[in-house]
Amino acid sequence: MRPLVATVDLSAIRHNYALAKRCAPQRQAFAVVKANAYGHGAREVVTALHDDADGFAVACLEEAAEVRALHASARILLLEGCFEASEYALAGQLRLDLVIQGAEQGEAFLAAGLDIPLNVWLKLDSGMHRLGFDPAALRAWHARLRNHPGVRELNLISHFACADERNHPLTEQQLESFLGLLDLDFDQRSLANSAAVLTIPAAHMDWLRPGIMLYGSTPLADLSAAELGLRPAMSLGAQLISLREVAVGESVGYGATWIAERPARIGTVSCGYADGYPRTAPAGTPVLVGGRRATLAGRVSMDMLAVDLSDLPEARVGDPVELWGAGLSVDEVARACGTLGYELLSKVTARVPRRYSH
Question: Where does substrate bind (predicted)?
């Protein structure tokens, strides 16, 4: 078997969910499990949180159906709403909490004439300008849906654009926009994503939406996961499968972009961009070999990558390699690659086997 595995610590996910709840006592929290639980495995994560989570949040009906099959009674928030008129009947059958983010969805919901009333969340575009009603349109839709027989609860939701950057002026503007609708008699409200859960108590409202923090990656630009008390859930581990000496002036990898400036010892690792490791990772990106730091040398290939082991003379074929995990934060690797931990975690591909610990 190819020596590459993503090991997922489900106890870390439970710990991180509990931390979110401790940040906002008496609030409830949707555990965000979209995109296959950010690459960790939705089935396993939902099962692990079955008795802890107040609800789950997903991006599409297919994800919602998977969660409902695992949990008969949990509230399941459909974050982007339905995409086609035919989906409303299934949303009703699955008893979803349904986001309505625009007039087209609102009209389609009314036309569906569902027999079972649903919890409906009107989405406010509070300043991100991606989805949602402007305040005036949202007030009009509140009036249309407040006493509609197809609506069990009428709720309010929005999403921050810059909560990861503390004290960003747009965050305060968005909060003010949301609070400007407090005169409307919504049953429940939800605004706080992971960053807001951790740093903006005024945004906690009734329901939290912890996402990336569940998986042990920081949602903040200036505080690490460890500083926030988060535990990493995924460790991506491979092996050294080859070692060789490379003379001064010789190159490594596609494009010959890495040139040895001294006699070099190069190791080949059983992980590449077809596994989800970013092809854009530059030379110098950190990895752990046998628990000690090394750096990438040359371009990432489809199935392999090379590391400079010149300062690790004890390294041997078969040594374990941690691409990220408990010993090397996914956020540090992401910064080296010019991206976010969200992307690295969610892009680990299906050919990488997941192993779970509890």
Answer: 130, 302
